[in-house]
Design a protein that fits this description.
Length: 822
């Protein structure tokens, strides 16, 4: 939100405080200052008020009509060439004299053009930085000022604009009124409320209003304004401030509603009274209803949409945008002004449903002061009467009681206990009173607080504590690091996660973090079956993006999307990993209880909350594409393949200090012949391998892209590492080559050899795989293993080593049908 500092100074006594001190005060209040724009800082004079005495027109060689003007600037007439034609003799204009510099570094000098020496320039609004209007020059309304008056000061061409970021729960801050009030508290200076105007009471001559949905609209006020001059221009003060706030000028009636919205925080809408038929009715949309909004779009309405209607049907999308049927036009003379109080949640849903944010809806979804509606209408009526010649007496309708007041009870010492700094009870009462609360203290140390109408965010004691501490100053709370109790540190699970991350990074993979939100189409792209449990994803009630409304049940969608994005940006060799939560509902979840923040939840409430939260195990995922070992002077490169995906799982298992078994499997989205199941103690904890070609094509990934995903919670950790006993005796190194059926996994043969060799076996390694149709026969292969045997207390004899090897081969023969190759 952008606000001119000059506007704020009108309502808060800031004196001559510098901009830096004012912005520091805003930051102390918790209002983020995104930027400070010094508008007109590059503008220098002389820029003065002049009067057009006369002019003569001629057609230039390019066919354009040019005016040779005589303009009195207070020191005598000057000849100026001008191409605009929207002015007449005796009009007051703004003249930039030679030596002036306009915004954008445009220097003015006397120069010959179209056969005349132009001694200055008559300026348009855009050339002065007053707005985007460049259709003609700026004509000042009489009486502007004496001729020769400095126009920079007269038109406030220099100003400071604060670009502020307010928190979503503080809707009152989205106005001059709200920011000025907070600044008055920050510096403890006087505050002038722009809403402190005389409010006209409801009268019988107002436009009839019916509220059919009091839950969506609890207050609707309307005021009829007649006799408006449709040709009356908006005054420069209004258009200037609207432009600085980022709102373009449209017409006097519309500009006034926007101006009052920025000033008081109350959005309004203006209807052309001649286009209204019957009573204004507030209700929900009906099936099949349509509405053409002011942006020219014809919209299909949802039953949850809150509407403003009349006898002809919908005329506005409540709190969001008006309809074209009752739009203020160039011939509008009678206007019905509306100021209402809408339910914020309804407005918020409507904004996202129709993708139609507006300045009004931003305020309504954050909360608007219901008590300011009448003042806003009175202020708008006064401005229309002053600048448009309208009559705003009478014709006021008030429908609905408005929201019920809220009372909060809080212990007087709660702010002190929460902040950890001394805050006496008297200070708490003073601070709450400053923000407009009515505070009643009881002998038991309790405070009964009635928040003001503009603070609908004060609902709990915690909200009151926040405001007390905010006004006392967050900077008064010392930064003190907590002292950890002795004997604590990282948990076993935390140490394991960090070890896994370091191990994968050391293996050459790069960590990424992806959003946990996925699109329903992701499951089709992964080729998951209709009954695959990974399709049973939780759907968010209010997603950040309608395109990704579900929570992930696997890391693969985000990981593969990141892989594709990197490849699309020119990378060809990519190795990524991610550690994160997945969300597994496991059936229907019970509704969560509403637990407040004023006390600690009970054990029963915590159990109920836990039961309503889906299972959220931690997974680790890996995605590989391109070259794993790049070619160079050292030799040829090697592309990443399914064994590398399996090896990444082994890296994780070694870091977690747990054994991992690998066996062939079939699981989407992996290739059925190049997929491995990862098991611990016989339980599948993940899968690894090469992705199915159809999945690779659907996701536009490189051929033979590989991936791995492992459930770290199911994998567990190996506990405390115990150092092995080291033997000083030499090992016995033996090799065995076994001929086995091609269908027998090498891991099964290795397990049998390990069990058969017994305690003397120190390590076992597969170092050769050989297949030969002529020598070995069909459907068989030779597996060669290196056995390392060692005894802890003696040197093994040849007989002992040979016996251990023979026992290992015998066990492999019994379990897998292996035959010793000779």
């Amino acid at each position: 939100m952008r606000l001119p500092l000059s506007w704020l100074r009108e309502h808060v006594a800031l004196g001559d405080r510098p901009v830096s001190e004012i912005t520091a005060g805003l930051v102390r209040l918790g209002i983020e200052v995104n930027a400070v724009d010094f508008v007109g800082s590059d503008l220098s004079g002389p820029v003065v008020v002049g009067r057009v005495l006369e002019f003569e027109e001629f057609v230039a060689g390019n066919g354009k009509t040019i005016r040779w003007c005589q303009v009195d600037v207070g020191s005598g007439p000057r000849g100026i060439v001008c191409g605009a034609r929207n002015f007449a003799p005796s009009d007051l204009v703004v003249v930039a004299l030679p030596g002036a510099v306009l915004p954008g570094g445009f220097a003015i000098s006397a120069r010959k053009t179209y056969g005349h020496v132009s001694d200055g320039m008559i300026c348009s609004a855009r050339e002065l930085g007053l707005g985007d209007d460049h259709a003609g020059i700026l004509v000042l309304p009489p009486p502007a000022a004496p001729l020769g008056t400095d126009a920079i000061e007269l038109l406030e061409l220099r100003d400071v604009v604060l670009d502020l970021e307010t928190t979503p729960d503080r809707g009152y801050q989205m106005s001059v009124r709200g920011i000025a009030r907070d600044l008055s508290l920050a510096f403890e200076v006087g505050f002038s409320d722009p809403a402190a105007v005389e409010i006209a009471p409801a009268s019988g001559g107002g436009w009839p209003v019916v509220i059919e949905d009091p839950a969506g609209c609890d207050l609707f006020t309307a005021r009829t304004v007649t006799g408006l001059d449709p040709a009356a221009p908006s005054p420069l003060e209004i258009t200037r401030r609207l432009a600085l706030a980022g709102i373009r000028s449209i017409s006097l009636a519309v500009d006034v509603t926007n101006y009052v919205m920025l000033e008081t925080g109350q959005p309004m809408h203006a209807f052309d009274r001649s286009r209204l038929t019957g009573a204004i009715t507030v209700r929900r949309a009906r099936a099949g209803e349509m509405l053409e909004t002011l942006d020219g779009t014809r919209r299909t309405l949802d039953p949850d949409d809150l509407l403003v209607t009349d006898g002809s049907g919908p005329i506005a999308l409540a709190g969001i945008m008006g309809g074209a049927a009752t739009e203020i036009g160039p011939a509008t003379t009678d206007v019905v002004l509306e100021a209402a109080h809408w339910q914020p949640a309804t407005i918020s849903r409507g904004i996202r449903r129709h993708k139609l944010p507006s300045e009004a809806s931003k305020r309504f979804e954050r909360g608007v002061d219901p008590a300011v509606a009448g003042a806003a209408l009175a202020r708008a009526g006064t401005l229309l009467a002053t600048y448009g010649g309208a009559t705003a007496a009478g014709g006021v309708t008030v429908s609905g009681p408005g929201p019920a007041p809220v009372t909060v009870t809080m212990a007087a010492d709660l702010p002190e206990r929460t902040a950890g700094v001394p805050i006496p009870a008297a200070t708490v009462v003073r601070r709450l009173s400053q923000i407009g609360c009515t505070v009643e203290a009881s002998p038991g140390g309790l405070l009964t607080v009635d928040p003001p109408s503009w603070r609908d965010d004060l609902l709990d004691p915690a909200d009151l504590v926040e405001d007390v501490v905010r006004l006392e100053g967050y900077d008064t709370i010392p930064s003190t690091l907590p002292t950890p109790p002795p004997g604590t540190g990282l948990t076993e699970r935390q140490r394991s996660r960090r070890s896994i991350g370091r191990a994968l990074a050391a293996a050459g993979l790069v960590e990424v973090l992806t959003y946990p939100f996925v699109a329903p189409s992701a499951w089709d792209e992964l080729g998951l079956a209709d009954d695959d449990p990974r399709r049973q994803a939780l759907r968010l009630v209010n997603p950040l993006s309608e395109a990704e409304p579900e929570l992930r049940t696997t890391l693969l969608p985000g990981l593969l999307s990141t892989l594709r994005r990197n490849i699309g940006r020119g990378l060809r060799d990519v190795a990524l990993y991610e550690t994160g939560l997945v969300f597994l509902p496991g059936g229907a979840l019970p509704p969560l209880p509403q637990v407040g923040v004023s006390r600690r939840p009970t054990a029963a409430e915590l159990a109920e909350l836990a039961a309503g939260i889906p299972d959220q195990p931690t997974h680790v995922g890996v995605a590989l594409a391109g070259e794993l070992d790049r070619p160079g002077w050292w030799g040829p490169g090697r592309p990443a393949g399914w064994p590398d995906a399996i090896e990444s799982a082994r890296v994780v298992a070694r870091a977690a200090r747990v054994p991992l078994t690998v066996r062939a499997a079939r699981q989407a989205p992996w290739h059925p012949g190049r997929c491995a199941a990862l098991l611990r103690d016989g339980t599948v904890v993940g899968y690894a391998g090469e992705l199915h070609p159809r999945v690779v094509a659907a996701l536009e990934l490189p051929e033979r892209t590989c991936a791995m995903e492992l459930d770290l919670d199911a994998l567990g950790t190996g506990g405390i590492v115990r150092a092995p006993a080291l033997s000083s005796y030499p090992p016995a190194l033996l090799d065995v080559a076994l001929v086995v059926p091609a269908s027998v996994p090498a891991a099964s043969v290795a397990a049998a050899l390990t069990d058969g060799a017994g305690s003397l076996l120190e390590s076992l390694r597969l170092f050769d795989v050989y297949a030969d149709l002529e020598r070995l026969g069909p459907d068989v292969r030779s597996l060669a293993y290196a056995l390392r045997l060692r005894a802890p207390d003696r040197t093994l004899t040849a007989e002992e080593a040979g016996a251990a090897r023979d026992a290992a081969v015998a066990e492999a023969t019994r379990r897998t049908g292996a035959v010793l190759r000779t």
